[in-house]
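Aggregate trends can hide what the representation actually does to any particular protein. For completeness, the protein is quoted in full, as a sequence line and a line of C-alpha cells.
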Amino acid sequence: MSPQISLTECKVTSFLCWFKINMVSAYISKAGTGFSWKPFRSLGRFVKLSLTSAITLCLDLWYTTVVIMMV
C-alpha cells in the first residue's frame, strides 16, 4: 500500500518551504539582487576540463574493448 499525500499536507509543506526561503533570504544581504554574469566567467575552463575528461573516458573504454577483443 503506497502512502497517500493529501492536498492539505501539500499546501502546508509548500508554505513551510516558502517561509523558510524567505526567512533565509532576509538574512542574506545580496538576496534577490538580480541576474549576474559572475558565475559564468570561468565557464571556459569548466568546458575545457569536461571535454578533456570525456575524451579520456572514451579512450579508456576503447582501449578496454580492444584488449578484451584481443584476448
Q: What stands out?
A: Residues 42-71 form one domain. The radius of gyration is 24 Å. The helical segments are 7-27, 43-70. Residues 21 and 71 are 58 Å apart (CA to CA).
